[in-house]
Amino acid sequence: MKKIAILTSGGDAPGMNAAIRAATRTAIRAGLEVFGVYQGYQGLIEGRIRPLGARDVGGIIQRGGTILGSARSEEFKTIDGQRKAIRSLNQFGIEGLIVIGGNGSQTGSEALSRLGLPVMGVASTIDNDLYGSEITIGVDTALNIALEAIDRLKITASSHQRAFFVEVMGRGCGYLALMTGLAGGAEAIVIPEVKTNPEELAQVMEEAYEKGKAHAIVIVAEGADYNAERLAAYFKEHRERLGFSIRVTTLGHVQRGGNPGAYDRILATRLGWNAATRMIDGEHGKLVGINKSEITATPLSEVVASKKELDLRLLELSQLLD
Ligand code: F6P
Q: Which residues are CB-contacts of 311 (< 8 A; sequence separation ≥ 6)?
């Protein structure tokens, strides 16, 4: 193998740049030519491919986002789009592709792999909903951003005896909400994996008020059956009963936009290096991730066919400690 390309796809995640840097420099050191694909799979279809040198990835390890850009491409979901993508790579003589991204991105890499392209995936999404890696690039930084916000919200909430519904990202998975709630000492956590009972939530808030708490923090995952706005609307008329007045804060993309912390830089560096090394050694069709502190490679076919389960015992733990 003489030429490989790297792309980032789906939601950006802090640490993607560190993975790009590690994969690029590992491949260059092994004598390969490296190319960057800009704007994810859409850019691949449109042939937005440029050489990446060792200096092009200098000074990026500490930067959030992705220097390659990202996109969500509907066209790539079609077989025609996927064939166009492979043609683009062929035009540059590129023989292998490293895809840094989450669920949707790895579904794409699995499709390319089935079409015969040597692909390695690198597990990266703030949602941490990707099978094949206990923790994915970006999660730790996103969690720390959410926690900083929670700590600040507690200060203002306590001053006014308020309950805050804080919405965090996580379209289909409650991992971020669960961990933010656990680490932030929230009174309640609302996640897609568990059906919401607003009356039970009301009880938790009432009890918090009766215990003499100055605030109540409820962490709500974006993808839960009741989002933060809906919960606030439900409790609008219940001021007397709850004790607290209600406010809503949606953290949204703020969580994705941070610079990576130490954990994400190190994880991304290890995974980027490992993906490139495996590809150079002839391995492909796999997702590189971390499991029990070891770097592992899981077949992409298994990754796309499996679901990562959330450890709901941690929800019980947070309830025990509220
Ligand atoms: O997949 C990561 C994620 O941040 C989800 O948590 C969120 O629902 C989604 O991306 C938002 O996507 P977009 O950036 O396209 O608005």
A: none
Catalytic-labelled residue, pool 56, 80, 127, 311: 127
| β-pair type (33-37, 3-8) | parallel
28-41 average pLDDT score = 98
Question: Ligand 1 pocket check: which of 169, 176, 180, 308 to mutate, most ligand atoms within 8 Å of Cβ?
Answer: 169
Q: What angle do CA 191, 248, 181 make, to 5 degrees?
A: 40
Distance CA 41, CA 178 (A): 31
Tell which atom from ligand 1 comes closest to the C-alpha of 169: 6
Q: How far is the CA of 99 from the centre of ligand 1 (A)?
A: 17
pLDDT of residue 237 exceeding 90, the answer is: no
CATH among 3.40.50.2300, 3.40.50.1780, 3.40.50.450, 2.170.190.11 for 3-138+260-305: 3.40.50.450
Cα–Cα distance for residue pair 314/179, rounded to 1 Å: 8
Annotated catalytic residue 129: no
Domain boundaries, the chain: 3-138+260-305, 141-256
The pLDDT of 170-174, averaged and rounded, is 94
DSSP-derived letter for residue 31 is T
pLDDT digits (tens, 9 = 90+) for 89-109: 999 999 999 999 999 999 999
- CATH tag for 141-256 (out of 3.40.50.1380, 3.40.50.1000, 3.40.50.2000, 3.40.50.460): 3.40.50.460
Tracing tokens 């794409």 back to the chain, one arrives at: 108
301 falls in which pLDDT band (50, 70, 90)?
Answer: very high
In this predicted model, what pLDDT tens digit does every residue of 203-236 receive, in sequence order?
Answer: 999 999 999 999 999 999 999 999 999 999 988 7
Judged against a pLDDT cut of 90, whether residue 271 lies above it is answered with yes
Task: For residue 39, report the distance from its CA to the centre of ligand 1, in Å.
Answer: 16
